[in-house]
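Page 47, continued from p. 46.
Same chain as before, 238 aa.
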Amino acid sequence: MNATGRPFRGVSPDERQAQRRRQLVEAGLDAFGSRGFHLTGVRDVCAAARLTERYFYESFKNLDALFLAVYDEAVARIREVVTRALAAPTDTPTDLARAALRAMLTAYRDDPRVARILLVEVMAVGAEMGDAPQNVNASFAEMIAGITRHLFPGMPERGLEPQLVANGLYGSTLYVSMQWAAGGFREPLEQILAHCMLFYDALFAHYQGLLAKPKARTRSRPKGPASSRATRRTRRDP
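Result:
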């Protein structure tokens, strides 16, 4: 920032700082996603961003703070591709789930840096991340729950809680994706997609089975004098 805080070449000091921050986040995404959090230092990030350490500490308290910003950026990229896939027209719930899963898995495979940060490195950073990973997982599970409520509005009446169902679906997908990323994406994407879809297909088949069954009816005990006399007779019987 210049001494007067006036625009330089038509760009304000705040805009220049925001640009430097973006450079650092992009450099951090490349460094953390390529070599890992514990093998990356502030100097590595600054060198990749072509900025001095002074500008690093202008935007971030430490490397953990940068990783959290990089994590948020990676989440935003995945959320964008999944949201776009969910907005596309589909014929069946199965097609909708498959489109969203394919978009997510494709994004992971096409940018292994994002996959490593979201699925591997976030576990290595640990407690320094605070509640961020839990909140992100909860938000994706809630997204699935919202879609589930929309597609299957009668779930609660048939003994299924949409949020618990969504937690299971998201958890299974997350773990399969983690193992795929940790193994270097060796298996073909379509194979991973098929295995993720097993859980969704099972849900759809189970729900269709529930729809085919009549809802259980609760039998009410008759009230009035006749009911009272029957109760008294039952008590007198040995």
